[in-house]
Structures are given as C-alpha cells and as structure tokens.
Amino acid sequence: MPQRSDAQANRARILEVARDLLTSDGDASLNSIAKASGVGPGTLYRHFPTREALVLAVYRAEVQRLVDWAPELVATEPPLTALRRWFERLASQIRLKHGLGDALSAAAQDSVTSETYAPVIGAISLILQAGERDASIRPSLDPDDVLMLMSSVWRTPLTPAGQRQSSRLLDLVVDSLRS
C-alpha cells in the first residue's frame, strides 16, 4: 500500500535532516533528528525502527541521488568534468558511510555495498561511454577498474591536507583516463 502524501513528506524530511545531522555528527541521536525534522519520535520510529535502518536509508537515498545525477552531468558537462564531479560526490558519500560505520553492522555494510554496487557501476559506465563517444576518454575502460582507481580518493583523511591529497589523486586518475 502506498504511503499517504504527508507520510512520504515526513520520511523525505527525516532523511534530509538525518543526512545533514549525521554528516556533521555521526553520533546525532534519533530524538535530535526527529526534533530537527519537526516530527515526533514515534513518527521517526514508524519509518525507521532502528538507528541502523535510518543510516542505511540515508545512504541508499544519497547513492540513488548520485546515480540519478549521472545522466544530467553527461548532458551538461564534458565527460571528464562530469566524471570528476561525480567521483567527488561519490567520495563524500562513501566517507559518510565509513563515518557511520559504528552505527552499521558488518552485515549491513556489506549488504548496502552490494545493493548499491550495480547502480554505481552503471552510472560510471554511462559517463565513460559519453567520453568514448566524444573521444575524450580512452576506449574500452572497465568501470570496475575505474571505481577501484577512484577508491584512493575517499581513503584520504578528512583534514585540509587530506582534501588537497584527494584532489591531487583525482587529478591523476582523471588524467590517466584521457584518450
């Protein structure tokens, strides 16, 4: 049965607020998220019965937004620029997931990674194919390999020096993909 429009709006607001609060403070309480969302704790718990359920929903929603953004980027940006911007956002999403690692069981982390892998690879493929078509990206790149190369970007520390290193690594990877 589909949710009522007010229930859908509450869920969307909770996810948005949770994303912001959990990004800034991985230990934000569910009660603080409910309060900042303008809903009661009961409403939050109806949608997300556990902290892990909320964290997983936030991560899934963010990955879906990222995947949905790929076609827009390809339509409005040169492929190499699109690839760089897309991977910058992916890195922040993966950092979010890693930053919330204490809130997720190992099984949940594995599950959400497996669940989001194919859509992420699909988005990478879309951008790579656009670059092949305009000859800006080397042909026949394997999106799994590109994702593995890009993994260095989100492994840098969340410090100013780490951010500079992340940018340099992203430059190196993007440059290596040029045709």
- The counted number of beta strands is 0
Mean pLDDT: 89
As for the number of domains, it is 2
CATH class of the largest domain: Mainly Alpha
Helical fraction equals: over 70%
What's the helix-strand series? Answer: HHHHHHHH
- List low-confidence stretches: none
Given the C-alpha coordinates, what overall shape results? Answer: elongated
Strand percentage lies at: under 5%
Total number of helices: 8
The span between the termini is: 50 Å
CATH topology of the largest domain: Tetracycline Repressor, domain 2
Secondary-structure-derived class:
mainly alpha
Fold topology:
Blueprint (H helix, E strand, L loop, with lengths): L4 H20 L5 H8 L3 H7 L3 H26 L2 H21 L6 H28 L9 H8 L9 H18 L2
Helix pairs in contact: 1-2, 1-4, 4-5, 4-6, 5-6, 5-8, 6-7
What does this structure look like?
The chain is an all-alpha fold and 179 residues long. It has two domains: 1-49, Homeodomain-like (Arc Repressor Mutant, subunit A, Orthogonal Bundle); 52-177, Tetracycline Repressor, domain 2 (Orthogonal Bundle). It has helices spanning 5-24, 30-37, 41-47, 51-76, 79-99, 106-133, 143-150, 160-177. Helix 1 (5-24) packs across helix 2 (30-37), helix 4 packs parallel to helix 6 (106-133) and helix 5 runs antiparallel to helix 6. The model has no long low-confidence stretch (mean pLDDT 89).
